[in-house]
Amino acid sequence: xxxxxxxxxxxxxxxxxxxxTIEVEKEIDVIIDEGNLxxxxxxxxxxxxxxxxxxxxxxxxxxxxxxxLINRIWQLxxxxxxxxxxxxxxxxxxxxxxxKPVPKKRKxxxxxxxxxxxxxxxxxxxxxxxxxxxxxxxxxxxxKRANDxxxxxxxxxxxxxxPFEDQFEKRKKKKNERTSKNELQRLRNIARAQKTKxxxxxxxxxxxxxxxxxxxxxxxxxxxxxxxxxFTETLPKEKPSKFTGKKRKFEPNYGDVKKENTKQLDxxxxxxxxxxxxxxxxxxxxxxxxxNRSSSKRQKTDKKGGKGGKGSKGSKNNSQPKKxxxxxx
Length: 329
Hints:
This is Ribosome biogenesis regulatory protein. 44% of the residues lie in helices and 6% in strands. The protein has helices spanning 2-18, 47-52, 54-73, 110-118, 165-193, 211-222, 257-272, 280-305, 310-319; strands at 31-33, 38-40, 78-80, 85-87, 128-131, 136-139. The strands form three sheets. A two-stranded antiparallel sheet has the order 1-2. The longest helix is centred in the middle third of the chain and has 29 residues, at 165-193. The protein starts with a helix and ends in a 10-residue tail after the last helix.
């Protein structure tokens, strides 16, 4: 019996030698900062023990200081969260310098603000889903997926449908594209032979485009959208285009009745009246133009006669008396 008791006591002593106690005694109390989980030990170093076995000495020292920190953490207020005991750390006592400033909080995106307002929680869907038919976990998508109903894969096809109709349409479409491409190439060859250019779609480019040409091209590009340029954004410092085209103005369906009657009567009178309408200003301008033409012709004829024509010679001969005749007085 005594041997058994000694054996039990010996085993207990061996176990206690392996695991050290949680109570640590220090000559000088260490400084513990629970917020940073920091322990500052100001006790002097035993250089004799350090020289004998440096690794063991450092391990023992770090173990004792860690034990003191853990003992202090268990003295803090705690609460249970997801079946885990969590300690509430106090404020930081020691200010530790940083190389860079503390990063600022990222601004929430529009989607995050909308999700927070609507209460939407983003959850990642798992790949495996429980299949109620087979009572097993199967992939959410792909081959042998869960809750796969073969009826969704079937497409009702009428009995009189032609299975090759789709293929014929594709071939016909390809053929039409090929013929149009060949026709365009033929026109380009003819234009190259005649040293001309094939007109392109929209506004054709020029060698030296002017300012008006570029403005017209910009107006065409803006109106080529689905909204006909209604929602197209303007460029910075862009002036309103002058190539917008003229808008037709129509009179209202319900307007002034008297004005409409007078307008229709004037049209009827101009059609039925046989006597032409005389424009006085136009007639006067035409008369003045004819007078100017006639006066210019007279001046030209007078200039031609003053250069020594027949009339000039006759005047000289008439001034001198003929031989054999006497002047009558």
